[in-house]
Structures are given as C-alpha cells and as structure tokens.
C-alpha cells in the first residue's frame, strides 16, 4: 500500500493562509491609518476655518468698537459745540442788549421829558427824570409801552385794534408804517411802574419830577 505524506502540503497551506491574514491585517491597518489621516485632516481644516471665523468676528467687533468710539466722540463734540453756541448767544445778547435798550429809550423819550438818573441790572431798569407836565409824563409812559421789536427792527406801535390780527408799526430806521402779525410784534419794555411823581417850580416854570421802574426784554 502506498502512503503519501500530506504534512508538507498542509504546512504550505498554513503559511499561505498566514500570509493572506497578515496581508489583510496590513490592509486593515493601512485603511485605518488613511481613515484616521483623512478624519484628522478634515478636523484640522474645520478647526482652521473656525479659527479664521473667530479672528474675522474679533476684527469686526474691534471695528465696531472703533466706530462706536468715534460716534461717542462726535456726540461729545456736538454737545460741546452746542454749549459754546449757547455761551456765544448769551454774550451776543449781553453785548447788543444795552445798545438796543438805549436806542429804545431814545425812541420813546419825547421832547418835554429829560432823564437825570439811570440804573440797569439784568434787564431791570430804574430811571429818574423830569417832565414839563403830568400829561408829558403820561405820554412818556405810553411811549415806553409802545416801543416794539419787529422782523424789520425797532419801531413804535401806531395802532393795535381789538380783534385785529395785525398791528401797524412805524419803523424807527425808515419812518415807514407797516403792518405785522401780532406774533411778530414784541414789546421791548414791560412792567412799567410809576414810583413817584411830584410837581415843583424851577424858576418861572413848573416841572414834574418822577421815577419809573420797568423791564427790558433783551432776548427779542
């Protein structure tokens, strides 16, 4: 009977099987490595993208902070300019107010009235003077009340009818008589009060000494 030894064949098959298993295992390792590398690369790209987005957002925030700072500075400068304009307006009124007031007094003073003393403080006036008669004094007080300010400058109220919507004013500069709406005509003097009036004789002439207080509106 012939016997065949199969052990070498089996050993060869086992070796081939071992090599195949090692090859498959190597393929698995290579595939796993490639997969890990691909996953890491994607994660790295995503991380870099997120870092870039964060940097861009920080840059935008910094730019917005700069713009907000500039707006705040502009608001502060605007407030400062408004305050300076208010101061300039106050100074302007303080400079032109007395000039207007003296012009108004000259406009209101009739021929038969003259002033001896004049005091002014913050728009409050006190004057002392003399008039030829009580009628001249009354005319002077009425004339003070009729000194008005219009869009065309100072003038004298000529007519102000009850129920009318306009007033007639004689302008000081031109002497023309024009009509203005009631809202455009502002009295320059107010609260005119006669404090004292006494008649006396100066030589052969009788005169009336008086003192008045009133207020001047420099703001118009």
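Q: What amino acid sequence fits the structure above?
A:
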């Amino acid at each position: 009977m012939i016997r065949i030894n199969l052990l070498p064949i089996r050993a060869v098959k086992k070796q081939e099987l071992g090599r195949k298993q090692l090859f498959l295992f190597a393929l698995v390792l290579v595939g796993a490595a490639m997969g890990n590398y691909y996953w890491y690369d994607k994660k790295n790209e995503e991380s870099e993208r997120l870092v870039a987005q964060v940097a861009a957002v920080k840059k935008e925030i910094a730019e917005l902070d700069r713009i907000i700072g500039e707006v705040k500075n502009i608001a502060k400068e605007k407030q400062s300019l408004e305050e300076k304009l208010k101061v300039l307006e106050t100074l302007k009124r303080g400079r032109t107010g007395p000039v207007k007031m003296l012009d108004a007094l000259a406009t209101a003073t009739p021929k038969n009235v003259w002033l001896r003393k004049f005091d002014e403080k913050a728009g409050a006036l006190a004057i002392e003077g003399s008039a030829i008669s009580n009628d001249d004094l009354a005319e002077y007080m009425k004339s003070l009340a009729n000194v008005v300010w219009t869009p065309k400058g100072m003038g004298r109220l000529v007519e102000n009818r009850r129920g009318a919507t306009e007033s007639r004013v004689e302008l000081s500069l031109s002497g023309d008589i024009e009509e203005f709406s009631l809202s455009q005509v502002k009295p320059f003097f107010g609260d005119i009060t006669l404090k004292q009036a006494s008649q006396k004789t100066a030589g052969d002439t009788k005169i009336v000494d008086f003192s008045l207080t009133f207020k001047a509106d420099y703001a118009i």
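Q: And what stands out in the fold?
A: DSSP finds two helices and nine strands in the chain.
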